[in-house]
């Protein structure tokens, strides 16, 4: 991993519990700037909770989180959430058209999204401008996911959190979204943190990987660690023997 | 009407009792309890009102209103799916609606400042506000649960709590006030409102009775909309903390 100077997100001894359950334990580590880091691990490892802490939807019980060297609590919540965007597996759509969904981030700031920019974003994610007037709820899973990513990009986030965005997609849509993420990463140098259950995907798309188990970070390094893990539990997980 | 005549009207209680027994509906116990409770409660209220009307003292009027607000709060927080700390929000809503309506009625000289007017009108306003509160709270908590993904989506995109719950709040306000508005559209076509019927039976001029009934209907429109909006805006901030995080646990069943 790189030094703190080139760190987009840094965790220092972070703990989080909910309803008496200790979900994250002693999380320490960094996500390098401009790179794609995948977050892998069995269900219930605390990966999605980690995202909610980065985006400020939850706060840690103890420990500190830094975004670009600034403590998370020194950000205004709204500023933090525009800096750290999040796209979820559910790709929740608000009622209305694709355009309405795409405009949402700017509408929340009392601004309007220019048609040219809307078309650019749709083009970037592989949806044509003919989609603008379609009802967002009628889109396929893959199209919703692309729209959800485009909508998050409206805020021009410096860090993009992707929570299992391809897990419910077919192979073709999955490949399209992977290409899209790589394209965005190259074009905007956006730091990407991607939760995935697909280890093949983590190997091919990620520069770095964090392996999490039972609320702890068990192993981190370049993505090829998944081919030859040092930790015994990670080895079992990679072989599909851990649940 | 004398007590003897009232005793004869018990025949209307006996009819459902006989039918329930005949068809084994099992309604006898509840029918008896309902009849006995309404006799005791209404007679007690009648004597209390007679005392308050005779005394014509502001303290007794205020005590009666406080009692109504207390009972309405107790009922609304018990029956309505509630939000943490809802009791004070309900009290504030009922007090506000009472001050607003009586302020206009008495301030503009629409009704005289006597117990005979203040107490029944307050009862109708607070009672209606209580029903609206239950409807609103049930709908609002359901909307917040069902649309939690949308709430967190808007927060995650940099929206404020107010923006995140706007749709849920709007839907709940509309859903709880529509029955009041809709029922007024057909009023008088099917059944005559209870207060108006009572006045007419008691010998009042039907036109005067209609005028008073219209006054009450208009009051209830204000009551419905103000109750829902006020309760909504008092309630939603308790569902978020100062870091604009949605506190799911603050929605209680």
Automatic annotation (TrEMBL), chain A:
GO CC entries: membrane
Gene Ontology biological-process annotations: phosphate ion transmembrane transport
InterPro entries, sorted: AAA+_ATPase, ABC_transporter-like_ATP-bd, ABC_transporter-like_CS, P-loop_NTPase, PstB-like
CDD domains: ABC_PstB_phosphate_transporter
Recorded GO MF terms: ATP binding; ATP hydrolysis activity; phosphate transmembrane transporter activity
Classification via SMART domains: AAA (SM00382)
PANTHER family on file: ABC TRANSPORTER I FAMILY MEMBER 17
Keyword ATP-binding: yes
Span of domain ABC transporter: 9-238
Keyword Acetylation found: no
Keywords: ATP-binding, Nucleotide-binding, Transport
Organism of provenance: Salinibacillus xinjiangensis
Protein name in the entry: ATP-binding cassette domain-containing protein
UniProtKB/TrEMBL annotation, chain B:
A Pfam family annotated for this UniProt entry: UPF0014
Domain of life: Bacteria
Compartment(s): Membrane
Transmembrane residue ranges: 6-23, 35-52, 58-74, 86-111, 117-137, 214-236
InterPro entries, A to Z: UPF0014_fam (IPR005226)
GO annotations of cellular component type: plasma membrane
Topology of this chain in the membrane: Multi-pass membrane protein
Alphabetic keyword roster: Membrane, Transmembrane, Transmembrane helix
Family: Belongs to the UPF0014 family.
Name the record gives this protein: Iron export ABC transporter permease subunit FetB
Protein's organism: Salinibacillus xinjiangensis
